[in-house]
Specification:
This protein is α+β, with helices and mostly antiparallel strands. 46% of the residues lie in helices and 19% in strands. The strands form 3 sheets. A 7-stranded antiparallel β-sheet has the order 2-6-7-1-5-4-3. Strands 12-11-8-9-10-15 form a 6-stranded mixed β-sheet. A two-stranded antiparallel sheet has the order 13-14. A hairpin with a 2-residue loop joins strand 3 (114-117) and strand 4 (120-123). The protein starts with a strand and ends with a helix.
Length: 402
């Protein structure tokens, strides 16, 4: 099983120069082969294999001597990444590879010949150890690393380690320990147990700050010292927002994969959802795709199941009590079923249906044990509280009180 770690590193001036050189060289190689491949395809209708590109590398290095100043394996990795980007595109799991623009940030990979010692990162090509803040123990055998520079000029290293532990066998799928999740626009998501997690509002605060900083930046004259300062300020706030969001996603996915054995969601084809421009912005803001991939990784490592139901299953407009299909409008947050008079919260009803569709899909009986034991819900609630996640409502409980 692989585990990934991310640490901040503090290169000195020489090391920084060499890191920037690595990033620039990798960008150059990526763009070079992407351009070559695009042209080849336009002329012959054929792409290029990894092997073909790798065989052209020595000649490219001869023409561009400065490429020899950086770790040659990092450059080889670029070719490998480009190749897998194309594979991903043809398998429809990724976008068509694009040219990398010259930017403040960037990254490069080091597949071997490195170690971590005494709060220092040692990479063979770098003559001296780079200072590093190891805030948690790296478990297992380190397989590869990526050094990155953010737009505001901070440096990080991501390390992939093989823990040597086998992925646990997946748990049996049962109605009792399953949960349906409806992802929302106004809310982050609602579960079939009636837990509703709102979008993190500390992000709103940071977003206001960001808007202000961007406005200030727009007023600075190009090329001025103050403009550069303003650019860094914008980038710093953007990074802060990304960190806040990652922290939120981490906590939520952790709690979900601890509390439930099976998590059922709609088809998570987020790019398909983004095509609907009404909800595009909030989906992009909520960072759904990163949340789902985090959720999947955690579920897998804990032997939990993730089930996706079809995107066209009528999860929102079907009454979860009697099965009546209702002409639900996008503006209706609550509705009453004309057939059985059940009163529904839009998201909760959808989440209950998602759970049911998911269980049916896997052949688990849904007529008994429909409800999750209250204990599971209350312990999920207390975990959320402990993690300081405040935007939580328990819809079913409120319904009972009413
Ligand atoms: Zn009904």
């Amino acid at each position: 099983m692989y585990k990934s770690y991310r640490f901040r590193i503090y290169p000195n001036e020489d090391q920084e120069t060499l890191i920037v050189k690595h990033i620039g060289s990798c960008r150059f190689v990526w763009n070079h082969f992407l351009d070559m491949r695009n042209k080849r395809y336009a002329e012959t209708g054929k792409g290029m294999t990894y092997k073909e590109m790798a065989l052209l590398l020595p000649a490219l290095k001869k023409e561009n001597k400065w490429l020899n100043e950086v770790n040659s394996q990092s450059i080889q990795q670029v070719v490998m990444h480009l190749d897998s980007a194309f594979h991903g595109f043809f398998k429809k799991i990724g976008k068509y590879p694009v040219f990398k623009k010259k930017a403040n940030g960037g990254s490069f990979a080091v597949p071997q010949n490195f170690k971590v010692e005494d709060n220092h990162l040692i990479i063979l090509k770098f003559k001296t150890p780079i200072r590093m803040f190891v805030h948690r123990k790296i478990e297992g055998h380190m397989r590869s690393l990526t050094v990155s520079r953010t737009s505001s000029g901070k440096y990080y290293v991501s390390i992939l380690a093989d823990t040597g532990i086998q992925t646990p066998e997946p748990k049996e799928i049962e109605a009792e320990s399953s949960v349906g999740m409806d992802v929302g626009i106004t809310e982050f998501f609602t579960t079939s147990d009636g837990l509703q997690i709102g979008n993190p509002w500390n992000l709103k605060k940071s977003e206001k700050k960001l808007a202000k900083a961007q406005k200030q930046l727009s007023r600075k004259t190009k090329g001025s010292k103050n403009r550069n300062k303003a650019i860094i300020r914008v980038a710093t706030i953007q990074e802060h927002i990304a960190n806040q969001r990652m922290d939120f996603h981490n906590k939520i996915s952790d709690i979900l994969t601890r509390q439930y054995d099976t998590i059922i969601t709609e088809d998570l084809n987020v790019s398909g959802m983004i095509r609907n421009h009404h909800i595009a912005k909030s989906i992009a803001d909520a960072g759904w795709s990163s949340f789902f991939s985090m959720l999947k990784t955690k579920a897998l490592s804990r032997g939990k199941n993730m089930i996706e139901i079809g995107r066209f299953d009528p999860s929102s407009k079907m009454c979860s009590e009697c099965g009546h299909i209702y002409a639900l409008k996008l503006s209706e947050r609550t509705w009453t079923c004309p057939e059985c008079n059940a009163f529904h919260d839009r998201e909760l009803n959808a989440a209950i249906n998602i759970k049911r569709f998911g269980l049916i899909k896997t052949g688990v009986p849904t007529d008994s044990g429909e409800l999750t034991p209250v204990d599971t819900v209350t312990s999920a609630l207390s975990l959320l509280e402990k993690e300081g996640i405040r935007q939580v409502k328990w819809l079913k409980q409120e319904a009972h009180v009413l």
